[in-house]
Amino acid sequence: MKDKQIKKLIEAERKRQKKVINLIASENYVSKDVLEALGSELTNKYAEGYPSRRYYGGNTIMDKIESLAQERALKLFKLDPSEWHVNVQPLSGSPANLAVYLALVPQGGKVMGMSLDHGGHLTHGHRVSASGKFWVQVPYGVNKETETLDYEALKTTVISEKPNIIVAGYTAYPRVIDFGKFREVADVSGALLMVDMSHFAGLVAGGAYPSPFSAEGGQALADVVTTTVHKTLRGPRAAMIFCRKDPPELIGRAGARELDKKIDKAVFPGLQGGPHLNQIAAVAVALKEAATPAFKKYAAQVIKNAKALSDELQKLGWRIVSGGTDSHLILVDTWNGGNPSTPLRAGGIGGKEASEKLEEAGIIVNKNTIPFDERSPVDPSGIRLGTPAETTRGKKEKDFIRIGQKINMVLRAQG
Ligand code: DSN
Fold it and tell me: Phi and psi at residue 18, in whole multiples of 5°?
């Protein structure tokens, strides 16, 4: 590379990534093949439109790449192309979610999403996001005692609020989500059900987490599923939107006809211009990798590692939100979490200080609110830990037990 300044910075970041223990739950390390596709000549091309329906010439090869990505996406999640459609053009998770609302919810309509401080995402209707400015959020949260989803409470909210769409799938919820119960809840008022599986898509692909698409007996679950590709799915920064094609039982529901056409239109020309075909090619590469037996093992190991880390921290006296994990992430209540026999200084340690101390020790985490947090999001009561990135680097349970011990030592060190 001729640009020495950027070259030096890329090199520095490469070294940083190698040196640290990365416990950011939403990050991962992609393969060389994914990087190669991202850095290819595909970035030079404009391809506004969709395969065989482009607004620019010279797109025969781009059509093949995009169609291949779509084919691989449907195959990976075992979806019948006559029943499901996938759009692989969203640049990332936030525009993907916005495209769904733009397509299916009238302006001012209701998006029922989990509150940010309980583990939801900004784009699930939070007021600072466009999703909360053009639509109205009907917030829900977890049960105060169990810190898990309360499906009966959800049903009550749905009956009284009648949301247009219900969003399940979160950024800081460590437990399995019962998509069958969500389907029942949505059916109570005729709402559409959207699952944002960004965090656990790789676990679904690897068969280690329940599918939001359909139940084991074939019962249909979500109407729309969005996902980023760069988290547990271990691909480039990108997103996809899956939707059911005119499911007979949905006909007649508000906004429920021709979901595929509406979503395609919302992505382009509704929100985006030319798709990033270098990114879409990298998505296709990652989807092929995720269909291998090695990836299946990876997904199972991610969860085993998270359980090992969670158990070790609990053993060392830390309070884990909801008492554990079924997924790739753990929420540690650092503020209220000290072991009485080796107490933290009065008041515990806030999430901001905890993440800073850990970073000094080479462990990268993010500060995070915990449900019913009384502290501010800039200095919340907890930290979020995730195992996808370090599992990609080959770490197993015994390594995560050691990481748990190091976290404990760092957070309890005085000064
Ligand atoms: N998806 C978020 C995360 O979990 O880190 C970022 O928006």
Answer: -70, -35
Same domain for 196 and 338: no
CA distances from 301 to 285, 295, 344 (A): 22, 10, 32
Nearest to 65 by CA among 289, 292, 279, 264: 279
Shared domain for 217 and 303, answered yes or no, is no
Q: How many domains, the chain?
A: 2
Token readout for 35 is 């990087």
Q: Considering the candidates 72, 183, 231, 307, report the single residue annotated as catalytic.
A: 231
- Out of 265, 290, 315, pick the residue that ends a domain: 290
**Low pLDDT (below 70) residues in the chain:** 247-256, 337-347, 415
Helix (H, G, I), strand (E, B) or coil at 346: coil
Burial category of 8 from C-beta neighbours within 10 Å (exposed 0-12, middle 13-18, buried 19 and up): exposed
| H-only helix segments in 169-210 | 179-189, 201-205
What is the model's pLDDT at position 340? 46
pLDDT at 251: 59
Tokens of 188: 């109570």
Write down the catalytic residue from 46, 63, 258, 265. 46
Whether 221 and 302 map to the same domain: the answer is no
Residue 132 belongs to what domain range? 37-290
Expressed in angstroms and rounded, the spacing between residue 187 Cα and the centre of ligand 1 is: 29
Verify that 278 and 304 share a domain, yes or no: no
171 lines ligand 1 (CB under 6 A): yes
Best residue among 24, 94, 97, 121 to mutate for probing ligand 1's pocket (most ligand atoms within 8 Å of CB) is 121
The Cα 39–Cα 44 span in angstroms is 10
Q: Residue 237 catalytic?
A: yes
The DSSP element (H or E) to which 386 belongs, if any, is: strand 382-386
Any catalytic annotation for residue 196? yes
71 is catalytic: no
Are 285 and 300 contained in the same domain?
no
Q: What is the pTM of this model?
A: 0.95
Ligand 1 pocket test target in 22, 23, 24, 26 with most atoms within 8 Å of CB = 26
363-364 and 21-22: which strand pairing? parallel
Q: Are residues 285 and 297 in the same domain?
A: no
Q: How many helices (H) and strands (E) does the chain have?
A: 14, 15
Assess whether 231 carries a catalytic annotation. yes
